């Protein structure tokens, strides 16, 4: 039986972030969601199960308050979930997340194929998937837009800037997928109700043997800004000349 693991992250819904007058970001009224890139990974995992059979386990590393995300993930098709949760997991960097995932997946699953989104919807570091593959010592293909299974081999079509390539890897293997892999399904009422009946294993802070030190630390976050001078230029020769001079003065033209 094909044992598929799909990793997902519960992130801030950017639609609820507000900018204060000082330029800071206000998170006091935010809601949360599964990272959109991880929804693609969940969809890919479920489609593989529908095509080749097997079982899909959804896994996340997060805080205890994010249990709603587990139900959301299960409503999208996985058979079961592992909820790795502790208050100290709030601001993990990619190396910490990968280390915790690797330890738990070794102990709790018989993974053959691990799927991740290309990046998370908040930091978008694109590091957890490759780092997790390194931790587990398995091959990894990134930016995959098509995925097939042949025997004990994974066949993945990777997308680059101006070309694509097809790679073949033995399982167990890890793949990070692009949104091109497939449009995520929208859970219905029945899917949401069934999600509550699916098995979820909760793992706390004391279960992983160690917490690695963070390699990346966020020291601040401010909203982007665009200053406008609101200069008007007419279609006359004099204004066109002034427009070109302004662009040169600003360094846009040289």
Roughly how much helix do the residues carry, as a percent range? 25-40%
Largest sheet: 9 strands, mixed
What's the overall geometry?
Answer: globular
Strand order of the largest sheet: 11-10-9-12-8-1-6-7-13
Structural class: alpha/beta
- Could you tell me the radius of gyration in angstroms? 22 Å
| Overall pLDDT confidence | 87
State the end-to-end distance. Answer: 63 Å
Describe what you observe in this structure.
The protein has one domain: 3-Layer(aba) Sandwich (Rossmann fold), CATH 3.40.50. The chain is 28% helix and 27% strand. The chain has 6 helices and 13 strands. The strands form 3 sheets. The chain has a 9-stranded mixed sheet with strand order 11-10-9-12-8-1-6-7-13, with helices on both faces. It has a two-stranded antiparallel ribbon with strand order 2-5. The chain has a two-stranded antiparallel ribbon with strand order 3-4. Strand 9 and strand 10 (153-159) form a beta hairpin.
Descriptive tags:
254 residues; alpha/beta; Rossmann fold; two-stranded antiparallel sheet; 6 helices; 13 strands; 27% strand; globular
């Amino acid at each position: 039986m094909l044992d598929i693991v799909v990793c997902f992250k519960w992130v801030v819904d950017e639609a609820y972030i507000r900018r204060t007058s000082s330029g800071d970001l206000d998170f006091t009224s935010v809601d949360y969601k599964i990272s959109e890139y991880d929804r693609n990974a969940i969809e890919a995992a479920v489609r593989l199960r529908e095509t080749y059979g097997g079982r899909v386990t959804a896994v996340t590393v997060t805080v205890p308050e994010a249990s709603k995300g587990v139900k959301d993930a299960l409503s999208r098709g996985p058979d079961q979930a592992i909820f790795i949760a502790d208050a100290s997991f709030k601001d993990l960097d990619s190396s910490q997340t990968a280390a915790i995932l690797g330890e738990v997946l070794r102990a709790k699953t018989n993974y053959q194929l691990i799927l991740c989104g290309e990046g998370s919807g908040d930091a978008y570091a694109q590091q957890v998937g490759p780092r997790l593959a390194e931790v587990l010592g398995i091959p990894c293909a990134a930016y995959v837009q098509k995925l097939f299974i042949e025997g004990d081999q994974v066949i993945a079509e990777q997308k680059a800037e101006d070309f694509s390539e097809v790679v073949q890897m033995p399982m167990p293997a890890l793949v990070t997928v692009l949104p091109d892999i497939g449009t995520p399904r929208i859970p219905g009422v029945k899917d949401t109700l069934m999600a509550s009946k699916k098995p979820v294993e909760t793992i706390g802070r004391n279960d992983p043997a160690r917490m690695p030190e963070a390699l990346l630390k966020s020291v601040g976050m401010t909203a982007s800004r665009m200053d406008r001078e609101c200069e008007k230029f007419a279609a006359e020769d004099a204004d066109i000349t002034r427009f070109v001079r302004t662009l040169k003065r600003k360094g846009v033209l040289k």
